[in-house]
Amino acid sequence: MRPAPPPHPTQVFPAPLDCGVSPRPGLAFGRPGLAALLLAGVTFSAQAQAQVAVAAAVTTAPAISGANTAWMLICTVLVMMMTMPGIMLFYGGMLRTKNALSIVAHTVAAAAVVTLMWALIGYSLAFTPGDGSFTGLIGGLTRVVGNGLLGSGAGVHPSAATVPESAFFMFQLAFAIITFAIILGATAERMRLGITVVFAALWTVLVYAPVAHWVWHPTGWLAAMGHMDFAGGTVVHIASGASALVAAWVLGPRAGFGRTPMVPHNLMITVLGGGLLWAGWFGFNAGSAFEASGRAAGALLATQVGACAGAAVWGVCEYIRRGQWSVLGTVSGAIAGLIAITPASGFVDIAGAMAIGGTAGLLCLGAVVVFKARTGIDDALDVFALHGVGGLVGTVLTPVFAVAAIAPITATVWTNVLGGLAVMAYAGGATWLILRCIGLFTSLRVKAEHESVGLDISEHGEMLSPGA
User: Fold this and answer.
1) I want to staple 314 with a disulfide (CB 3.0 to 4.6 A). Which of 70, 103, 110, 361 is the partner?
2) Exposed, middle or buried, 143 (CB in 10 Å: 0-12/13-18/19+)?
3) Rounded distance, CA 303 to CA 233, Å?
4) Which CATH class name applies to 69-460?
5) How do residues 323-381 score in pLDDT, each as one tens digit?
6) Residue ranges of domains in the chain
7) Which pLDDT belongs to residue 204?
8) 160 — phi, psi (to 5°)?
């Protein structure tokens, strides 16, 4: 037997307004009663208008999504993991034993300085609208020292309208940290730690913040042109690659470069670091959708496919060239594929990801083989050959393989070429100027005897192991 239906709910009506009018039949409206009725009508009208206004505000105000916020917090942690410990291990294993700890020190110091500069002024310059004649070139000062990011009045950023702006701030900070940390691979084994600190502070404000504004703020001049960079091919990889090349050139080569073997001291550490970078890259690319959505899932899928295409092509090419499968080469190929798919990850399908990752594996390997031999520039860990070349490959190919069904195609190939070359020229020129200015007051390099002993002992008084 089915249970009896529940009783019909009792309908409750609001009490009638007391307008000073007799409820008896045959109402007679005297002057006091009429005045009260009019007053009640005006009051009711004002209340109704207020309710409509509140409803409209609720409708138009951006709604914070708990799911999107959780996703962005997770992605932020993944991107932070790429630097610490990802970059530390990936770079540290490729250095000589006597300098392995120094890259850790430089990375931690850079992360601290970039964080402070980002909070003080970098974020405001990158992600707020510009003022007057500076519109499109640099942001304003409305978020200096994190003003308005926390508390009851905090809101959202236009680029990520469903998460708190503080979450957007932190995600972008993680990008700023790793972008500078990438440069350290080119200056390893010879730059003084104090110089890294000053360089990081100036570079964050004078290079990274303006470039991020150009590409990722809606009013930026490259954004206005339609430049397509989903997760940082231009902002992160081209900027860091160009800056690394110039920094290596200004510093000069390491003692014994080209004459003394400088082989990695522990490839297992490098592979572990590469694995952490690979895992963190999912947050790097998929998080750039700023929401837990189908586009984020597509970016994650494209990231994996691009990485594997790069690893496969690099590995096969090395086998053809040397008759052996190189572990370091295969991991480097995966990194090349990840770099190249970064700007395209939110725009391309699986076939496009394969094409971009494979092309990057081939061209980045060629750059590694040819570049140092032809130029004589001691880019210690091939930062330009991977990030500069890979970033440019991905940036140029993004409009080629972009799929309109995934996201609007806003750029031509030439638009992205212009943006990539503009950022490369600006980042390289600004880096040269920054280091030359610092060099007017102090030496950029450690002393020759300190370099011979190794930076771990001479700069930090520590050793990787007692037997090293």
Assistant:
1) 361
2) buried
3) 13
4) mainly alpha
5) 999 999 999 999 999 999 999 999 999 999 999 999 999 999 999 999 888 999 999 99
6) 69-460
7) 98
8) -145, 75
What does the alpha-carbon distance between residue 187 and residue 165 come to, in Å, rounded to a whole number? 34
Rounded to 5 degrees, what are φ and ψ at 198? Answer: -65, -45
- pLDDT at residue 4, as a whole number: 44
- Measured in residues, the chain has a length of 468
Return the structure tokens found at 86: 């990802």
How far is residue 110's CA from residue 113's CA, in Å, rounded to a whole number? 5
Residue matched to tokens 């450690």: 446
Question: Is the separation of the CB atoms in 175 and 103 below 8 Å?
Answer: no
Residues 6+ apart with CB under 8 A from 308: 334, 337, 357
Q: Supply the pLDDT for residue 152.
A: 81
d(CA 199, CA 176): 14
- DSSP for 102-171, written as a single string: HHHHHHHHHHHHHHHHIIIIIHHHHHS---GGGTTT---STTGGGTTSSSTT---BTTBTTS-HHHHHHH
Which pLDDT band holds residue 39 (cuts at 50, 70, 90)? very low
Q: Phi, psi at residue 451, to the nearest 5°? A: -65, -35
Distance in angstroms (rounded) separating the CA atoms of residues 93 and 346: 32
